[in-house]
Amino acid sequence: MFNRRVQRVLNTKEQTTSPTVMLDAFMLTCIVDAIERRDVAMSDVKGAYLNALMDDFVVMLISGPEVRIFWELDPTLKEFVTKEKGKNVLYVQLDRPLYGCVKSALLWYESYTGTLKGMGFDLNPYDPCVANKEINETQCSICWYVDNNKISHRDSKV
Question: Strand 82-84's sheet: what is its strand order?
Fold first, then answer.
């Protein structure tokens, strides 16, 4: 369990809040999909946060029986295991955001939008969780809520 209080004290709301698609924008893209008879795909990015990089120094405490699992997976960790209140504990520094860290969603958003921009998508100026790109002379639209996507284009192969 993460102690979010410590993380929240160190960061402002602007430093931890990630945009999500607005309901109006989502509904409008659904209307466009229907009018243009677009093929629609829904997808979930598995382990999305793990695709981003942690930009802060974050230490996580692992305690109890989970510690043994970690040192069995990587025996070099055993030398870092200590006892606190009779329980094995292991302190680790996070290189990647995990669910529960206050900045994880924002770090993922920044990584994801960077990838989309790199692929030639333009973010909608009214909703930063809608992106569009012309593919085969027709618009492809992606809108997302954290790691859940709705992708549409007239050509199902796109």
Answer: 59-63, 87-93, 82-84
Separation of alpha carbons 6 and 59, rounded Å: 11
**Identity of the residue numbered 73:** L
- DSSP strand pairing (122-123 vs 130-135): antiparallel
Distance between CA atoms of residues 136 and 142, nearest Å: 16
Give tens-digit pLDDT for 24-61. Answer: 999 999 999 999 999 999 999 998 989 899 988 888 89
Bridge partners, 82 (sequence order): 89
Are 45 and 103 in contact by the 8 Å Cβ rule? The answer is no
Question: How many Å apart are CA 50 and CA 62, to the nearest integer?
Answer: 18
CB 28 within 8 A of CB 132: no
Q: What is the pLDDT of residue 10?
A: 62
Paired tokens of 38: 């677009």
Dihedral sign, CA of 95, 99, 102, 106?
positive
Token pair listed for 77: 């960790």
130: buried, middle or exposed (CB in 10 Å: 19+, 13-18, 0-12)? buried
